[in-house]
Amino acid sequence: MITKNSDASDAPETDELEPPRQEVMPALRKIQDDFIRKWGEMGQTWGINRTMAEIHAFLYVTGHPQCSDDVIERLNISRGNVSMSLRALCDWGIVRRFHRRGVRREYFESVGDVWEMFSIIAGERKRREMDPVLDTIRQCQQALSEAQMGTKARDEAVMLTRQRLVDMEEFMDLTNKIFESFITGTKSGLSKVVKVLLKSV
Fold first, then answer.
1. What pLDDT is stored for residue 127 in this prediction?
2. Sign of the alpha-carbon torsion through 52, 63, 94, 107
């Protein structure tokens, strides 16, 4: 029986109920390893370092909950790095932790629905990267307003800079709406975005 989001202190001091580890056939393992390696290389493009991406790929492609020892053994990563990376992946929301009743170890599993996974990634990237940029753009516009600069706000160079910021804000707002389609609509929202983009190709 699996208990989600339970407290490790409630588990008994024994691993006697630990499920046996399943051996992976060499051919399957090689294919999984190829995916894990490539996913790790790609991970940096969406804001996750290579180790985190490889751990996520391992959890996703195997399709079964894994404990930290499984990750260490499979990927040959230090315990400290595994612990830190799993915590970060849980913070992102693309990996979830849980306990098996009667087992001390924590287990981790990746979100299985790829549409949900990418909507989470899109939302996290928006929060970390796009929102701060948009806030800065608006602050800069406010600083260049007549209320802040007086008659200097009518200077040609000031007006040109302000217009560039207005144009960028409009673009960022549009981009944010696209990201919102990923985040709030999940599969249906993403499908709409894809259809719109395909029409423009």
1. 84
2. negative
Joined together, the tokens standing for residue 74 give 């499979």
Entry pTM = 0.67
**Which CATH topology does 2-110 take?**
Arc Repressor Mutant, subunit A (1.10.10)
Q: Rounded to whole angstroms, what are the CA distances from 176 to 2, 139, 141, 142, 179? A: 38, 18, 19, 20, 5
Q: Is the pLDDT of residue 87 over 80?
A: yes
Q: What is the rounded CA–CA span in Å between residue 138 and residue 176?
A: 14
Q: Report the range out of 115-124, 136-145, 181-190 with the highest average pLDDT.
A: 136-145
- Of 179, 73, 55, nearest in space to 122 by CA: 179
The number of residues in the chain equals 201
